[in-house]
Design goal:
The complex is a heterodimer of chains A (about 800) and B (about 120). With about 800 residues, chain A is α+β, with helices and mostly antiparallel strands. Helix content of chain A is about 45%, strand content about 20%. Chain B is α/β, with parallel strands linked by helices and about 120 residues long. In chain B, helix 1 links the parallel strand 1 and strand 2. The chains are: A alpha+beta (about 800), B alpha/beta (about 120).
Amino acid sequence: MSPPSKALAEFVAEATEILEALGKDLLVLDERRGHEADPDRVNGIFRAAHSLKGLAGLFGQERISRLAHGTEDLLDRLRLGKLHLNDAVLDTLIEALDAFQALLAETARGTETDGLTRRADGMAERLGRLGEVSVALDEDPLERLELDAQVRSVFTEYEEHRLRENVRKGVSMWRVRAAFDLSDFDMGLADLNTRLKPLGEVISTLPSAQPGGAHGIAFDLIFGTQVSMPELESGLKGTPAELARLAVRPATTRSAEALARATESPAIVLGTLGVASAPEASTGTSPPTKRGVRAAVEGGTHQPLLPLASERSDTEQGETGASAHGVPGLDSESDEEHAPSAKGPSLVTYLQGPGGRAPALAATPPGASQAGAGAASSSSASAEPSLRSLTQTVRVDIGKLDGLINMVGELLLIKASLQRLAESARQDGVVPLSKLFGQELARETRGLERKLEALQEGLLEARMVPVGQVFDKLARLVRRITREAGKEIDFVIGGGEVELDKLIVEELSDPLMHLIRNAIDHGVESPDTRLAAGKPRRAVVSLRAEQKGNHVVIQVSDDGAGIDELRVREVALTRGLITHAQAEEMGRRELLNLIFLPGFSTARSVSELSGRGVGLDVVKNNLGNLSGIIDVWSERGKGTAFHLTLPVTLAIIRALVVGVSARTYAVPLNSVLEILSVQPREIRTMERREVLDVRGQTLPFVRLARLFGLPERPVSRYFVVVVGLAQERLGIAVDELHGQQDIVTKPLGGRLQSVRGISGATDLGNRRPVLVLDVAALLEEGLALERRRA
Amino acid sequence: MRVKVLIVEDSKASREYIASTVEAVEGIEAVVTSSGFEALKLLPRHRFELIITDINMPDINGLELINFVKKNPNYRDVPLFIITTEGREQDRDRGMALGAAEYLVKPFQPGSLEGLLRRYLKLP
């Protein structure tokens, strides 16, 4: 069965989504190595592998299905406690993720290579063999939990395992019952989950089988927590939750002696517990009446199993509080008898409707439940703070978006034409009617403009994705390279929430990977070298994004050996990239920037210069294509930092329209800092470069006409458009300013593509193409030009 | 008039696959949802003749949905199919014990689901 290509694209899209989520969770586990893994996270990963297996099976993707099967099997053992999560297991899982991605890439391309098939199958087999078996318990702790058999029968194997683990650890178990209005119970439950989550583990959410009236529905949440009753109550304030503690019988086999002691003098045991092992007591599950003995005994017997932080002192209070609510089992009949009337709202109140005390949450939009397409919640509550945020996330096909953006471009053309029409009608109109017509037209144009702006804004926002998407992928890579290189590195990520155009984010991964790989391979010293230099053994490589106006600055830095600019100079001289005379004139910053020159780096220079410069010209070019620039800072012995400055979007930009020698150009406004009016005598020459003095600073200066080889006309004054990206500044002399306009830049084809200083062409509404200046290239060109002339 | 079948499955592609298989049978309208919660909301609003559910879902699991349906006098007679995968025998058995009518193991052929649908919905 070979599914049609549309279905295959759907498969690839969903599989990609699953793998992304899986990668994120693995990363968290990786960062928290040595700590006990969050069961919800392990289960999340299991679910991802499980979904992937089912998905691949349905679409006839045998290779992915086989590997997913092996992965799921391993994860299943993990989450059910049959296997211990150690470094080897985690490493293998991360390797499996890489294999999945490679397989998916082949699927998307419609290819299938034997090498990858063998690798994936080998890995699947390895996953099956992996792992040590956890020690089996001599008694099933679950048997001690007093729980209705009916309730137990709806637990999945995993839920049963989590329940077992909680009981084994002596965590107290609660039944949290809440009734909601049928129309918005998911909101109420999401709120409840958000509050419960920090306090413990929600093991299961059971819809009450009792018919909840016409509009109501009740849920029982099985919840395990170490916090006391008052804490739990205060955490749930304002929700319709009712608490009932589930009784746990003491472990019988190993506690005969303790039980005997406890029965003889329960008061003493309780007292001892209160002082010596308070946390244990908090885990007791029964009120301190007759059951108090049990609680005490259980705490005592489980002590060796429970390495808890002994920070709590309100245990006794918790026990007392619990006594009012301690109801064994989940039998709803008996629950209602015991239901507290003073503390929580009664179930009946809520069955009648949400009332005033229900959390004030917006109702689900009526369309949301239809087909469930918008309400897909594919990850567990732990990954996302609420269900709401899940439903607000939309993945949009970039092709569709591009189509829309193109349409906006066309609409902008119409707007500009209309504007011209209105203008001429108003000016030429000699009769009142045509003047009125002009005014009308102008008003319509304004309306159209407003609508267009809104549409444009919405579309641009839809294209925005958090740069963290790339960061997460890189973090996994860092782990692997670090291991291979034998370095010890802390990888720090910041500003992942900063948003950039999807296209830019996608294109960023390669340059960033390059820079990070360089930092790890060559920037960071070995642990011993670092110690010898008086630095901490572990190096820090960081990746941070920050929004600055309508640009985003991404910094890749390390605290390694830094770049030796004198060696850079030497290499550049040896390779004939600069002359001795030029080298003499260059400052430290200019020398460092030589590493971006094509031909600077070769295999040999890798060892000579700690590898800095490997393909950096490529990195620079990639960024140039995104209208971004790269800058380097380095200090010997202290480290290196690369700053990447990028526009937030490339789709539609506002431009300054300028005229030079009767030709028109557009300058992207986001890089225009200011405009100066300059008389020719103010231009002076410094070190054979034309410069301007602006508020005491020297500004490099180019005449656009001269740069493009156009006939220069004598003018009494120049308009100087000051452009800047990152720290670079340049004054560009033009003859005329024509105002601002939104433009959609179209790429130039064929031979024109390689013209420096031009990023594309646009149409200003008069059906005549206008070239758009490439500010990043001009900044370089301006400097290079001067250098060449020198 | 077409009879309505509710499909509860959190994986989008699987959901679409099952839905297209179901809708290929003349006389059936598929109502799909990605979560157990949504299923609980949909139940009182439609008259479903059959429910197909996954077991592993993020909000409430499929077993809980089966239990809810089978305990509720309004829905208890609606036949329920479980969609499961290899290796989840315990969950599958529990689902059957709770009253599910049939189970299908992913990946299944469209024909097998089609046959079951015709049988339970008494379609020609």
